[in-house]
From TrEMBL:
<dbReference type="GO" id="GO:0046872">
    <property type="term" value="F:metal ion binding"/>
</dbReference>
<feature type="disulfide bond">
    <location>
        <begin position="508"/>
        <end position="710"/>
    </location>
</feature>
<dbReference type="GO" id="GO:0005615">
    <property type="term" value="C:extracellular space"/>
</dbReference>
<feature type="disulfide bond">
    <location>
        <begin position="522"/>
        <end position="534"/>
    </location>
</feature>
<comment type="similarity">
    <text>Belongs to the transferrin family.</text>
</comment>
<keyword id="KW-0964">Secreted</keyword>
<feature type="disulfide bond">
    <location>
        <begin position="377"/>
        <end position="391"/>
    </location>
</feature>
<dbReference type="Pfam" id="PF00405">
    <property type="entry name" value="Transferrin"/>
</dbReference>
<dbReference type="GO" id="GO:0055037">
    <property type="term" value="C:recycling endosome"/>
</dbReference>
<feature type="disulfide bond">
    <location>
        <begin position="609"/>
        <end position="623"/>
    </location>
</feature>
<feature type="disulfide bond">
    <location>
        <begin position="251"/>
        <end position="265"/>
    </location>
</feature>
<dbReference type="InterPro" id="IPR016357">
    <property type="entry name" value="Transferrin"/>
</dbReference>
<feature type="binding site">
    <location>
        <position position="140"/>
    </location>
    <ligand>
        <name>hydrogencarbonate</name>
    </ligand>
</feature>
<feature type="domain" description="Transferrin-like">
    <location>
        <begin position="364"/>
        <end position="709"/>
    </location>
</feature>
<dbReference type="InterPro" id="IPR001156">
    <property type="entry name" value="Transferrin-like_dom"/>
</dbReference>
<comment type="subunit">
    <text>Monomer.</text>
</comment>
<feature type="disulfide bond">
    <location>
        <begin position="131"/>
        <end position="220"/>
    </location>
</feature>
Amino acid sequence: MRGLCKILLFISVCCIRAKKTRWCTVSDAEQRKCAELAKSLVAVLPPAAVAAFARLSCVRASSTTDCINKIKANRADIVTLDAGEVYSAVKQFDLVAVAKEMYSEGGCVLSVAVVTDSSMDIRSLQGHRSCHSGLRWTAGWSLPLGFLLSRNYLSWSKERPLSQDISAFFNASCVPGAAAVAPDLCALCRGHKSFIRKKNYFCETSHSEPFYNNQGALRCLRSGAGDVAFVDHLALESVEASEQDQLRLLCPDGTNAPLSHYRSCNLGCGPGGGVITRYNFRKVVRKFITTIQLLFGRNGKRRQHFQLFNSTSFGENDLLFRDMTDKLVVLPDDVDVSQVLGLDYVALLKGLGHEGSSLEDSVVRWCCISHAEQKKCEQWALSIKSDPLVCVRGVSMRDCIKRIKKDEVDAVSLDATHSYVAGKCGLIPVVTEYYGRTCAPAEGSAHVETDVFPSVAGVAVAKHSSRNIFMGNLGGRRSCHSHLYSPAGWLLPYTHTLSLEHNNSASCDPNQVFDEVFWKGCLPGSQGNLCKVCMGGTGEAATKRCSDNHNERYYGNMGALRCLVGDPSGKSYGEVAFLEQHSLHTNILSLSSSGWAEGWTSSDFELLCADGRRAALSEWESCNLGAVPPNTIMTRPVLAARIYNFLIKSQETLGANPNSEFKLFESHQYGESDLLFKDATRCFVHTSHMEYRTILGEAFYSHVENVFNCTHSDILEFCNKDVCSAF
Ligand SMILES: *[C@@H]1O[C@H](CO)[C@@H](O)[C@H](O)[C@H]1NC(C)=O
Ligand SMILES: *[C@@H]1O[C@H](CO)[C@@H](O)[C@H](O)[C@H]1NC(C)=O
Ligand SMILES: *[C@@H]1O[C@H](CO)[C@@H](O)[C@H](O)[C@H]1NC(C)=O
Ligand SMILES: *[C@@H]1O[C@H](CO)[C@@H](O)[C@H](O)[C@H]1NC(C)=O
């Protein structure tokens, strides 16, 4: 008897120090699995180890929201949540994410729309009945709604929360978790209703609501309650072979496909589940997670006792963790939520108003890369009557892509090469610049609609007076390039024989080819010898040499021309310039009006043809280095419809007032060319329903892909690091 007392005394003393971990569960089934885990820990670990860090108790809550509240209030410690709820727990409740679920293909999930009726079409879901895994869940809510908004199949008035527009869009829904915030979205749910909060499961995020989570949403579809279920691709694994034929996926292009095609037929990807706790409990939880994974994970030493990622014997799926989890990755301290969940995802949640709508939502933030663009953008903002326009400064097109991803700006016009990069970074087209002769819309339609986009030409230009310069004879000379990654200044020239002595067949990296062939030059945005001819900028546009924007006076089509003629003192000049043909003539004339260099006319220049000939500027159609696909305005997917409306309103307002001082597609009054948009633009063509790959054309696309496969680029590296970019 005294011995037992001693042991009890010992345990109670030791356990004042050792923390007990309290797991929050949302159903009886989950409570049973949790209790089994607690028992198994006691069974397999020596008592001292259990006492030190593996004591587990299970706290029953009525929903995941209840769990978040309990953890916040120090009445529970730990729970696994969908990424959408992880975000709310971190942002609104100051909790921290300590671990992430990893599945066989990584830590991300694809959102899919599952139907039983193969005549359904993602483009006409309005009026149908919908089943969702949970409110604000990644695959069941945010990704599909982001998709529907980006295609403009669903419109959101912004004056009210998105949930209200959703309940008007679908005939009826079951969105577990919506009971308190949008009861209209609960009509199809089947959970037990009770006035006693703890016993009410109707439309709650609890397994006691039969239509809760991925399995519940599929149940909602199968039972005939709903016409479409939004779930993630992991849920498809549990569909029995015999049932596979009865279910179809709705694809973005309006077709449908068998369940196994989820990789090509989905509504987007986002992060999977994560484990959260209070900040000051995170170390205990990390140790606990590591321990249970070592013991009971997929390769756990004691998995014959208990399997962490298997819920079969408890009568439900996905208890404590997703059953498809391969392993848990413990997160280091002080990682930002956007590093855990991904920039794209966090920007999507902000776009959907997860943190409540704000004034910011109605503002369009345009990315401007130079002082001149900023001035033009500010004039634009004053000349329109639509959503307010704010002009935000970036330092280069690459920087704008980065900032759009980070939700610091919303849109920018990108040249063809940068459109490729932006597409790889998850941005999508809104409109494409149209360089045709006229912009008269076809009869019966309000805007120009086309999928044939006139291109511009990339050319090489030399001074008429430099007689012995031609393609093939450029070795050791000084070069001028519009800018790094520009189609005409960077991508096209290297594909031609620049110099017979310097074999360009040796390298597929344009930077390396230029470095070998030219003595020095100005390629704004690059480094080394190819910056030596650059000038930098002064005054309000002050910048160091070689910056990748119009502040560098040798940047762009106008800049490459300035570089060719040299600065007013006659120094710092190039012998060949690689640029776009479209506004060459006007740019030559404006050299003097901009106070740069006097007296130059078109006849002072000649084109260098790919075959070594020289020709007059007017002969560009037969003497060029290749076609350059048009610029495209790109944005985050969730904003596409809004940016489109904004641009079309701008175009209409400005078009209806031809006397307006401000012209969207002119730049010479600011002393530059191609500010914000190419000066050759006649109008915008709607392209948000198109893939950027289609806009660029297959030949150009694979050329750019090849080149980026053998040159290092910070921006693609940055984008490839985002959490779900590998999917
Ligand atoms: C939507 O509901 C209305 C009335 O409840 C019904 O008439 C209509 O057929 C439903 N639409 C679909 C597509 O189920
Ligand atoms: C899950 O557990 C059940 C019963 O304990 C077992 O039959 C099944 O094989 C397990 N599943 C996996 C994938 O290990
Ligand atoms: C250049 O290419 C030719 C064949 O196209 C080859 O014979 C020659 O060795 C190459 N020169 C260099 C410097 O690589
Ligand atoms: C470029 O690299 C990617 C990934 O390594 C590969 O999938 C693709 O086929 C490559 N493209 C070309 C044109 O070589």
